[in-house]
Amino acid sequence: MTKQLHLISTGKQPVEQFASICAHVHPYVDAIHVREKRKTAREVSAFVAALIGNGVPPQKIIINDRVDVAVVYGVKGVQLAYHSLSVSQVKRHFPRLAVGCSVHSLDEAKEAAKSGADFCIYGHIFLTTSKSGMAPRGVDSLQAIVASVNIPVIAIGGIHAGNAAQVLQAGADGIAVMSAVFLARDPVAEAKKLAHIVKQTWPMNGGEEC
Ligand SMILES: Cc1nc(C(=O)O)sc1CCOP(=O)(O)O
């Protein structure tokens, strides 16, 4: 599988601003996550409608937690957390949805893989103001997870063009970024830069050809 670039909404941008950035950056990314944790289903729905209205293909849209909104819009999938419906519930009732799982330890990653998740997002790798007050988990722990689970592992947290290569070299199947693109002076230039790094030829499994 080629490595992937995911963008995650900040939860702080007005819908118009978010959608207008995404209208320009979507060709460079593999997935755009609508992660608006404090918003109602109706408000999340407005974000998804704005993305689609601005030309983002539904097959590039992943919705955090809200399985209902994902089904209504026929988007690619959902990103589940510990408080969400379980992976197996979603897979059983909505087999067409891709299911990602947010994980923060090796055990959680193994559990996600066992329960049938299509991919997991692991973090946070580096210090980030988007998750302040918590120690980063580091690249070594990422490497251990990549070596132990058989689903794609997307790395998140404090990743930008200056350290993305380190994470991909460690074996991550992709990166997910929030501030690196959405808080950039030029989000399109930043997304292009990250896409260029992600789409390079990376050795398998963090350096060992297999
Ligand atoms: C949304 C999110 N989840 C994380 C996790 O560790 O699960 S870290 C994170 C924030 C990522 O933001 P930035 O790219 O600005 O560092």
From TrEMBL:
Domain of life: Bacteria
Any single GO CC term annotated in Swiss-Prot or TrEMBL for this entry: cytoplasm
Stored InterPro entries: Aldolase_TIM, ThiamineP_synth_sf, ThiamineP_synth_TenI
Organism: Saccharococcus thermophilus
Single GO term (MF): thiamine-phosphate diphosphorylase activity
Gene3D superfamilies for this protein: Aldolase class I
Stored Pfam families: TMP-TENI (PF02581)
Name of the protein in question: Thiazole tautomerase (Transcriptional regulator TenI)
Domain Thiamine phosphate synthase/TenI: 21-181
Gene Ontology terms: biological process: thiamine biosynthetic process
EC nos: 5.3.99.10
Keywords: Isomerase, Thiamine biosynthesis
Pathway the protein contributes to: Cofactor biosynthesis; thiamine diphosphate biosynthesis
